[in-house]
Predict the structure.
Amino acid sequence: MIRHITPLRTRLVGLGARVQSKMVHHKVTIIGSGPAAHTAAIYLARAEMKPTLYEGMMANGIAAGGQLTTTTEIENFPGFPDALSGSELMERMRQQSAKFGTNIITETVSKVDLSSKPFKLWTEFNENSDPVTTDAIILATGASAKRMHLPGEETYWQRGISACAVCDGAVPIFRNKPLAVIGGGDSACEEAEFLTKYGSKVYILVRKDHFRASVIMQRRIEKNPNIIVLFNTVALEAKGDGKLLNVLRIKNVKTGVENDLEVNGLFYAIGHSPATGIVKGQVDEDETGYVQTVPGSSLTSVPGFFAAGDVQDSRYRQAVTSAGSGCIAALDAERYLTAQK
Ligand code: FAD
């Protein structure tokens, strides 16, 4: 849906950047189009910093507008008591960015060079020509949840299958129903514990015969009577009535025995992949590939290069926290650019 918003205008802007690539310089460039990117754009545009935002074209497999475009109702973004769809929320953010003068380009940034100032960047359309230059960059390219791509998963994705318990756990289809979480780390334990607020019981499927989670999390799981841990267990197939998930085919990897587990919800907690490919090796990352920022800021190991949203946040991963960090990045970038004058 997001991809169809004012396509002509944005494509013409993008075309302008392609044709005139020799001359293009942006004061501040935002890469991404989720809540972090658009919040940064709104703040920078209102501060008259003339931001340019590359929103991507199915970058990282996600439509412009980010992860929220892949979901239905958003009930936890403040200001919308009656909820609204993820696509509508992102459309509104995009309109707000554009209203204050953000130059939105519908192209995917394919390469960035942070080795000297001004920074250089190329998009998928100008890879073989002169780069666009920029004094500062805010990376807000987000992340994507790892999925197993089980048979049946495409049918029941967002119809029983999710990768975010905090986002989706409260929806009616999961209320007082048996649910399953796949994963063996702290996230899986946290998600399972959270889901016991809504589900009748929660199974945790762990491929190995032990958790990777911290001991303290394991103790909490053991004490929760509504959580059942199935070790040595993998999921084979998601099944349902064509509309909603109601069974997970599972297998004990030790015995080889297969069973149907009746569940109405399946939550993946097997990690996320931050979209950092274009800056790999150029900026410090943590051990799981997230861009490292100085705590409480968007500052990275490269002055003038800032990171916001899920691409630098492996913990909270929410629209409102991403928006908050987009605001922080805009204020950090503005301060940086003002000091450069
Ligand atoms: P993202 O939303 O990940 O957006 C990044 C964007 O950058 C993408 O559009 C991508 O295409 C683009 N991009 C990537 N690389 C490039 C590039 N090289 N050039 C140009 N563009 C690029 N959170 C909530 O608070 N409430 C919810 O109810 C909720 N539900 C969710 C449901 C689902 C199914 C999912 C997957 C997530 C949900 N979330 C929810 C989490 C929320 O969507 C994310 O935390 C938030 O969108 C992260 O925002 P972001 O700005 O960091 O980036």
